[in-house]
Design goal:
With 308 residues, the chain is of the alpha+beta class. It contains ten helices and eleven strands. Helix 1 packs across helix 3 (118-133) and helix 2 crosses helix 3. It binds L-homoserine. L-homoserine binds next to helix 5.
Amino acid sequence: MDSIKVFAPGTVANVACGFDVIGLALNAPGDEMILRLSDEPGIRITAVHGADLPLDPTRNVAGVAVQALLDKHGHPNVGIEIEIFKKIHPGSGIGSSAASSAGAVVGANYLLGEPFTKKQLVRFAMEGERLASGAAHADNVAPAILGGFTLVRSYRPLDITSLHTPDDLWVSVIHPQIEVKTSDAREILKQKVLMTDAIRQWGNVGALVAGLYQEDYGLISRSLEDAIVEPVRSILIPAFQELKLKCVEAGALGGGISGSGPSVFMLSKGEAIAQQVADTMNLVYAPLGVDYKIYVSRINTAGVKVIE
Ligand code: HSE
């Protein structure tokens, strides 16, 4: 096989309480990418459709992620061409850079005969995140590659595990069309946390994981709380508090900022409620004069998928 097309899903990182450690994958939106083996050694980004991103492979997250894979693979003469069809807007908070990085390493790995496991690919994709945001966080690339919910137990050493996804869990996401750079959204965070906030946060993280395994939607709902990051970042998002309140009134289990924002996600039990929540997002945002997009999606348990 010398050419492959992949679908690379958007992702919701943090999932309220799990800053930098919990993430989930979406069915929509997602990018598509074509990767081709070439006789000419090195990586070439042949085109990026739908976004203004660098073609220079050392400045493009897909190029950097595949380079990390090739460095480890140890075959300097391999040539790979990458064509990217962006559907996830950069700076949206729905894992745009992660989708490009994840899709690129999964595609390249297939072309090379799968020398690496999916878990090993996460480390290469993290290099794309390092380029995009200055921090090699894994809470977008891990769910993008592995699918479902993932948890980063530790960064050093890297220890990532997949979590159970309840069947009837749905996500509604609103993406206000303003750009928040992850690097900026990380810079405004405090570097120290209060012990009382930390206790609340790790209680919620543990309970969220338990809620997922027990398919206890009440426990999931009570765990979707962020005492540390959301109070700082939410000021960047128009009508954030009203949006959250109205979505919960409409039946959402809870939610928060998607990754570093400006997108906001809400989890719901069942498609019908997730749709009502999406309608509520629409009602809150329609009068604001800010363009936005809304997505309703079941959790994507497959991760990056080969489609051709
Ligand atoms: N955990 C990262 C952050 C995700 O919140 O900065 C960025 O999408």
